[in-house]
Amino acid sequence: MKDESTLVVVAYHSGYGHTARLAESVRAGAASVDGTKAEPVSVDGITEEEWALLDAADAIVFGSPTYMGSASPEFHTFARDSVKRWQLQAWDGKLAAGFSNSGSKSGDKLHTLEYMALLAAQHGMLWVSLGLVSGWNSSTSDENALNRLGVWLGAAAASNIDEGPELMHDSDLRTAEHLGRRVAEQARRRHGVEMARALYEMKGDRTDERT
Ligand SMILES: Cc1cc2nc3c(=O)[nH]c(=O)nc-3n(C[C@H](O)[C@H](O)[C@H](O)COP(=O)(O)O)c2cc1C
């Protein structure tokens, strides 16, 4: 039977450190769920050991800054190199999710998230949405609410282009943490179903032995 814990891997690229901070929030959110191991993998210069970690994952959360309206070139290189897994459909059935950071409040980062969802679909992965309503869209709400940017496909963050990662918006970091937690919870739920099925089948085998 499989190991009791589930593994969530955060596969991200960050040019200037903002998306790396989000990746850490996603990882921490996932790790806060009982029975979950959560590991970060920086895809720029990814090693064979790190590819193996991705292969072993129950869920992969993709992360990239938005550069010129899409994922960064480094993330695209990682996606291109994942074709070896695509050929075997080695990631079929794993959970997937995504996050992106950009300078503008919109900045077309939805396109980056759509690209990640498409990448996941090509791999046969199952996409986990953010699962939060829009946080800052009325006269009574404010920018400190979770999902302040009102994105559903994944976790979105906006960071001023003249400020470092240490000044990132707390709401964005908490939203990323929420995504990590949600993905880990979904992975645990699927793991529970698989364990129950395995137990049921074992029980069935014993019944066959007796008859
Ligand atoms: C080459 C380049 C292209 C960018 N394109 C966009 C863009 O399309 N939309 C946007 O809002 N910000 C854009 N930005 C700003 C970055 O998304 C922003 O600085 C982000 O915080 C960088 O994340 P990182 O520190 O993880 O690399 C761009 C920055 C660079 C360097």
Automatic annotation (TrEMBL):
Pfam families (alphabetical): FMN_red
Superkingdom, natural source: Bacteria
InterPro entries: Flavodoxin/NO_synth, Flavoprotein-like_sf, FMN_Rdtase-like_dom
Segments forming domain Flavodoxin-like: 8-157
UniProt-recorded name of the protein: Flavodoxin family protein
